[in-house]
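Following up on my earlier message about adenosine-5'-triphosphate. Here are the inputs again, as you asked, copied directly from the submission form:
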Amino acid sequence: MIEIKNISKIYNENTVPVQALNEVNLRIEKGEFTAIVGPSGCGKTTLLNILGGLDTPSSGDILIDNANLHQRSSSEMIAFRRDHIGFVFQDYSLMPVLTARENVEFIMELQGKSKVERNSRSTELLTAVGIADKAEKLPNQLSGGQQQRVAVARALASKPKLILADEPTANLDSKSTTDLLDIMRQLNEKENITFVIATHDQRVMDRAKRVIRFDDGKIIEDEVSEKNQASSL
Ligand SMILES: Nc1ncnc2c1ncn2[C@@H]1O[C@H](COP(=O)(O)OP(=O)(O)OP(=O)(O)O)[C@@H](O)[C@H]1O
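Thanks, got it. Here's what our run produced:
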């Protein structure tokens, strides 16, 4: 599904260029639940940003379902991201003036979906992440764990094939982390959504089907966990 071919990224903004990714090759199949791990600065966020079309590689190609991601024009890229990729960030990144429901529905509004359709989908998603009763609350009326659940529901609103999550559990307590991982794994199993998660969190690694370890912009280990495949859920 996703083929990362010889991707390198060099940041030239400072006097000394930084090579964040160094000829990375990787194939991620549909339905994977993959953790990208490694020390701070090893290139995890850079990889996710390039995979999500938020940043461009210095060289190399990314193919998603055989189509070259970065050969799109900027308007095509915006539409592709909106329709096919969901993002979950460490700081939740919810819009503070919108309720949980409105945050979830925002992308559907951009897609031109009717109010009835938006409402039914947001109810379904907020129920799936266990906070339907908080639909009319603003983000600052919710706990961190609840806000991250809204962020996951929002990421799913456009029915994406791929969710990219950057340190989604970094600000969560243990119970919220377990709950969030349960929700993400269930979505992965039931709807075959591919998850790629950059993380330092051992609890995420323990639940991942595959753990890819980076160091200094390169893959140094790529391990599939037999115990975390679907049958063990
Ligand atoms: N916009 C930028 N300009 C210059 N250098 C950058 C930029 N973004 C990242 N870098 C550098 O690229 C390297 C990889 O950064 P990246 O954020 O991808 O690492 P990371 O593995 O996600 O780190 P962390 O775990 O701390 O989030 C680091 O050396 C970082 O300082």
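One observation from looking it over: The chain has seven helices and ten strands. Hope that helps, and feel free to reply on this thread.
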